[in-house]
Structures are given as C-alpha cells and as structure tokens.
Amino acid sequence: LQLHHSGSYSCGGWMDSKVAPWAQSAPMTVTVHGVPLSGVSLSVQPPGGQVALGDSLVLSCAVAAGTGPLSFSWHREGSGASLGTGPRLELHHVGDNDSGQYRCRVSNGDSVAESDPLNVTVLGERVPRAGGDP
C-alpha cells in the first residue's frame, strides 16, 4: 500500500436476478497511514571511528522502521551545513577538522528521526598499510 491508495472503495457484481441484476455495496473509506521513522543507527568504517590523517572514512545510516520515500542528511556537531544527502557519507583524505560527532537525520515527509551521535577521531599521522600503500 502507498499513501495515495487512501480513498473511498465499494464492490459490485452482477446478480442472477431480474429485480436487481446489479448490486453494489455501500462505500467504505480506507485511510493509509505512514509508519513513523524509528531506529536510525550509524555504522562506521574503519570500526571505532578512528581514522588516520589522510585516510578515508565511510559512515552508513540505517532505518529500522518507517515508510518512505526517505531523505537523508548528515551533520557534524558545530557545523550547520549538511555534509551529504545519501544513506552513506564518504570522507576522503580526512583532516584534523573532520574530527567530531556525526549524526544522520532521516525524513519521510511526515516524520523526522535522528541517530545518536557517533564520535570520529582523526589520528595525528597516517598509518602505513601492509603492501606499501603510500
């Protein structure tokens, strides 16, 4: 069901009768309600939210319940601007100013829900990876 399926419904049918060959039920009003958003959660790669200076960070936002369409926005504490609008936020070549608390805000047009904050810490120097990654 979608929200636009709300409306007045009735059914009818041909009867095997000469008195009333067509019969129709009284109309019934059907209202489809959206499910409010709940259970917005964040996951982070690398795990723990600790990332070396210059490396990449990926945050993912998930919704446990709620009907769509869903729109996402990402926010860092102390910054009023939205950092992204999809279910994933990818930060490449992170810098010192990328440390902080991140949140995901989700809206379905009827309700808004927000994740708990997730702490991201950018470590002072880049940690070399195995295999000689520069």
TrEMBL record:
PROSITE patterns: IG_LIKE. Residues 27-121 form the Ig-like domain. InterPro entries: Ig-like_dom, Ig-like_dom_sf, Ig-like_fold, Ig_sub, Ig_sub2. It comes from the Eukaryota. Residues 77-102 are annotated as: Disordered. This is FCRL2 protein.
